[in-house]
Design goal:
Blueprint lengths: L2 H15 L5 E5 L11 H14 L8 E4 L10 E6 L7 H12 L3 E6 L4 H11 L6 E2 L29 E7 L2 E8 L3 H5 L2 H4 L3 H20 L1
Parallel strand pairs: 1-2, 1-3, 3-4, 4-7
Antiparallel strand pairs: 5-6, 6-7
Helix pairs in contact: 2-7, 3-4
């Protein structure tokens, strides 16, 4: 059996055994704070379970891209404020994960834009990020966001944007910039996010989960 088929088989076994939905927080090198706001995924998964009926495990689970454990997560999440660096082996591994059906959500927590785009070029050198139209299915996968990405955090005051990388017309990477919904997922006292903005962010995160799980 080829290495590719072995990994594909492992992915299918992991997804069958781990029926409950979990999110893997990508642990990366380069100096950026990959670990920030550990309550974010926990709160999002709890919200989506209660409000969207997703059979989710509300927890925070760091994962290294070189670990076979990534194939037990239908969705990976990466965020931070600073530099991101992928080893060549990590880039290849992430590409395999995404091509086999995995989904990566990236949220710029302010300051990771340049390095994230650079590192994703290592993963898919032939692809370019494209901005999703406001009528894209992700923005209405469960809750309706007719204007697209919500503005959770001011950052530089620019328009919030959502970008994607597509493989065979499938959205494999979704990236939010000047939006930062994951700040709204964190415990309320962390960022003092207004309650309406926090609920909006959790609803938007639920859309991301629904899209990632069904496409």
């Amino acid at each position: 059996m080829s290495k590719f088929l072995k990994i594909q088989t492992l992915l299918l076994i992991c997804l069958l055994v781990n029926a409950q939905v979990k999110i893997g927080r990508v642990k990366y090198s380069g100096g950026g704070d990959w670990y920030n706001d550990p309550s974010a995924e926990k709160n999002l998964l709890a919200f989506s379970k209660q409000n969207a009926g997703i059979d989710a495990v509300a927890g925070y689970e760091p994962v290294e891209l070189q670990s076979d454990k990534i194939f037990s997560f239908p969705i990976l999440f990466i965020t931070g404020h600073g530099n991101i660096n992928f080893l060549e082996s990590e880039s290849k591994r992430l590409r395999i994960y995404l091509e086999l059906g995995g989904f990566l959500y990236a949220d710029d927590d302010y300051g990771m834009n340049q390095s994230f785009r650079r590192e994703m070029k290592k993963v898919f050198p032939e692809l370019e990020f494209v901005e999703l139209a406001t009528n894209h299915g992700l923005y209405k996968s469960f809750y309706n966001f007719p204007e697209g990405v919500p503005k959770t955090n001011e950052h530089d005051g620019k328009k919030p944007q959502g970008f994607g990388l597509f493989v065979d017309k499938r959205l494999v990477v979704y990236y939010t910039y000047e939006s930062n919904p994951s700040d709204g997922w964190a415990d309320k006292e962390i960022h003092n996010t207004p309650e309406d903005k926090r609920e909006e962010a959790l609803k938007f995160g639920t859309n991301i989960l629904v899209w990632g799980l069904t496409h």
